[in-house]
UniProtKB/TrEMBL annotation:
Pfam family, any one: Transcrip_reg
Localisation per UniProt entry: Mitochondrion
GO CC term (a single one): mitochondrion
Domain TACO1/YebC-like N-terminal: 66-136
Gene3D superfamilies xref list: 1.10.10.200, 3.30.70.980
Domain of life: Eukaryota
Organism per entry: Orbilia blumenaviensis
Domain TACO1/YebC-like second and third: 145-310
Family stated for the protein in its record: Belongs to the TACO1 family.
Protein name in the entry: Uncharacterized protein
Length: 326
């Protein structure tokens, strides 16, 4: 940069005086011009008054980036990953509490999960609430009950909202309000779904999906499941539909014995599978309306699961799936 860039510049500006020359004002106003003081009456047309001001034209130093913005984005990513990890741990704590009880002394798997949660920084309140949910209790200690709310959107998409709550009337009121605002209606639609038990089977992470598929297809295993497919976005977690009407604890233990080494049952439950689907375009008003509707439902703390018969136009069948029995 030039050395003159930091030199203060003196700017001269010509001022043309326009003062009246009557005696009263002339005697009261004194103006200093070029080192001499004159009254307004003594000003001449050729007199020039100069004013001066200084300013700096040096460039402003900038760091080139916003430090706080970078910190904020990094922190946001870390918080999102931590929340996702906490959510998975919380689900597993609830699941193993349901299976083997809330006492870590007699529930070895639960003890390992609680220790893992502590090391990851999960608060004691979150762990306690996860254990309570596994016992069928709310945060306040009141017993929880399951409420299913059925309905249909304006676009003809059927849905079942599964809620777990300690106040049935409050939950019904909250969910009904969301449905009405979205233009939907409450109507029986359970006949459009099949309630079926399922399991989540998790294989070794170092094993490719192709090798996991081959391991599950081994005829020696004789798995008591009808269908198994790799979950979207996952590389080692599969969802399997179980043959039995309800997966009892004994079935989980038997399944664990049958599965190949390195595999485990990470989740069990009952799920509503649609008998038929309603296709909706991804980029459409109907699609945006349904997404907003689901987001509103998910914001409701009592909503546990949302099932629908919607199928996006961009849907692609799982690349890795096995139909074991018809």
């Amino acid at each position: 940069m030039s050395a003159y860039a930091y030199r203060p510049l003196r700017v001269l500006r010509r001022v043309v005086p326009t003062y009246p020359t009557n005696g009263l004002l002339a005697g009261a106003v004194n103006i200093r011009i070029q080192g001499t003081t004159r009254t307004a009456a003594g000003l001449l047309d050729h007199d020039i008054a100069y004013t001066a001001r200084t300013f700096c034209v040096s460039s402003q130093c900038q760091s080139g980036h916003n430090k706080w913005s970078k910190i904020r984005h990094d922190k946001g990513r870390k918080d999102a990953n931590k929340a996702n990890s906490f959510s998975k741990l919380s689900e597993q704590i609830t699941e193993y509490t349901k299976r083997y009880g809330p006492d870590p002394k007699t529930n070895g798997r639960l003890k390992l999960l609680l220790d893992q949660a502590k090391k990851s920084g999960m608060s004691g309140t979150i762990m306690e609430n996860a254990v309570k949910r596994g016992q069928g209790l709310s945060i306040s200690g009141k017993p929880l009950e399951t409420v299913n709310i059925e309905g249909m959107t304006q676009e003809g998409v059927s849905f079942i909202v599964e809620c777990v709550t300690d106040n049935k009337l409050r939950t019904l009121q909250d969910v009904r309000l969301i449905i009405n605002k979205a233009g939907g209606k409450l109507t029986p639609v359970s006949y459009l779904f099949v309630k079926h038990p399922y399991m989540h089977l998790t294989g070794p992470e170092e094993m490719s999906p192709e090798n996991q598929t081959a391991a599950l297809e081994d005829p020696v295993l004789t798995l008591p499941i009808e269908y198994v497919g790799l979950l979207p976005g996952e590389t080692s977690t599969w969802e399997a539909r179980v043959e039995y009407s309800e997966p009892p604890l004994q079935l989980v233990e038997d399944m664990q014995k049958i599965l190949p080494e390195g595999w485990s049952v990470t989740k069990t439950g009952l799920k509503y599978y649609p008998s038929d689907h309603v296709q909706v375009e991804d980029e459409s008003e109907a699609g945006d309306a349904f997404r907003n509707f689901v987001e509103k439902l998910e914001d409701c703390s009592d909503v546990a699961e949302i099932y629908s018969n919607l199928r996006w136009s961009s849907y692609e069948p799982p690349k890795h799936e096995i139909v074991l029995t018809e």
